[in-house]
Amino acid sequence: MMAAHPTLSNTRPEQLIACPFCDALHLRARVKVGQRARCSRCHTVLMAPRAGSYLQVITLSLSVVILMGSAVFFPFLTIAVAGVSRTTSVYEVAFAYSDGILQPLSFVVLAVIMLVPTLRAALLIYAIWPLAHGRPPFARATTALRLAETARPWSMAEVFVFGTSVALVKIAGLATVSLGPAFWAFCGLVLLLTLNEHAICKWTLWQDLEDSARP
Amino acid sequence: MTAQAAHLIGCRTCGRVWPEGTPTCGRCGARLRAIRDGHSLQAVWAWLLAGMVCYVPANLYPMLNTSTLLDKTTNTVIGGAVELWQGGNYGVAAIVFVASVMIPIGKFIAIGWLALAIGHQNIPGRHRHLRLLHIVEFIGRWSMVDVFVVAILSALVQLGVVATIEPGPAAASFALSVAFTMLSAQSFDPRTIWTTRTP
């Protein structure tokens, strides 16, 4: 746990951090790899740095971008019933809502399952790349990272894969369904996105960005 | 000691601390918000209300229009779950019901309760409420599952006269309801859970 200091009010603000969940002040300290720093008041884990995390985030994010590129247009699912068959891609799934009043929903679906995860990966690469190489961050790296944080709840690729399995059960009795390469790509994506989520210690990253920006 | 008591303001995005009255965080660029500016709670109620309003047509209008050689059927959100149940897929039926009925309604109640309870909690209650808010925020996205199921089914089942599935208007209001509720949970400033209401 981080120590709540008795004379915190006399400390300069730049030596302090405040818990975003309960506003408790803590002395800013560097947390070692493998250790976890919890808030002394609400016990939320604030920092949990991991070894080699930046290189890992870059590798995973690059894989996300590449895999997403292939997942979009390749066949996703194929259905066959009574001699008629149809193959659909993820792109077509999003545009299932392209009729009339539902049209905006197509763009929402496209955004949350593909654009947001890809954008987040790209932003993370932009913000972290120089840090992994021991250089000062690129211009507006903080804006990139903040945007990536804002977009986090709207990245729903894993919910989509879950939805796919529900849809499969719904039509399994009525028709023969076969899984295309894009389906497996999406399963891989979910794994990568989850690993990526756990590789980042947000607050350590913010501190590193600030420290490495100083000349 | 809290940042507020020390006349400081903490950044909710990166944790950096600034003197009271600083408009934006100099480290990450996020807007700094004082705990007691009341704006946060107004936004919570506004988004929550919007989410609840959208949830009504989401359940009244059809989610799916299915037409086969023989007949045409429409399915509402609950109807879809019931159909799965009758088809013997109890597990999936339960998942759909939990994701599209229990979680949304549970979230409405949870956020409203959290907002009303601000300033009236003892210490263990505050810990419980913070945990509840974390759960609500984590679970929010998973309600979207039904919107994706409808998209997949209607993209896939386009077999001319044999069988065709079209999305219904409920899909849009359902998606809006989920999005508004997520925004409501995001607007909730967890630091307010720890404040005591001054008379």
Largest sheet of chain B: 3 strands, antiparallel
Known CATH architecture of the largest domain in chain B: Up-down Bundle
- Beta-strand percent range of chain B: 5-15%
> First CA to last CA of chain B: what distance?
22 Å
Count of DSSP E strands of chain A? 7
SSE pattern of chain A: EEEEHEEHHHHEHH
Proportion of residues in extended strands of chain A: 5-15%
Number of helices of chain A: 7
Low-confidence stretches of chain B: none
Report what the structure shows.
The complex is a heterodimer of chains A (215) and B (199). Chain A is α+β, with helices and mostly antiparallel strands. Chain A has 2 domains: 8-47, no CATH class; 53-213, Butyryl-CoA Dehydrogenase, subunit A, domain 3 (Up-down Bundle), CATH 1.20.140. Chain A is 53% helix and 13% strand. Chain A has 7 helices and 7 strands, in the order ββββαββααααβαα. Chain A has a 3-stranded antiparallel beta sheet with strand order 6-5-7. Chain A has a two-stranded antiparallel ribbon with strand order 1-2. In chain A, strand 3 and strand 4 form a beta hairpin. In chain A, helix 1 runs antiparallel to helix 3. Chain B is mainly alpha-helical and 199 residues long. Chain B folds into 2 domains: 1-32, no CATH class; 38-194, Up-down Bundle (Butyryl-CoA Dehydrogenase, subunit A, domain 3), CATH 1.20.140. Chain B is built from 6 helices and 5 strands. Chain B has helices spanning 39-60, 77-86, 90-117, 123-139, 145-156, 170-187, and strands spanning 8-10, 17-19, 64-68, 72-75, 163-167. In chain B, the strands form 2 sheets. A 3-stranded antiparallel beta sheet of chain B has the order 4-3-5. In chain B, a hairpin with a 3-residue loop joins strand 3 and strand 4. In chain B, helix 1 packs antiparallel against helix 3 (90-117). The longest helix of chain B has 28 residues, at 90-117. Chain B is elongated. The two termini of chain B are 22 Å apart. Chains A and B meet through strand 1, strand 5, strand 6, helix 2 and helix 3 of A and strand 1, strand 2, helix 3, helix 4 and helix 5 of B.
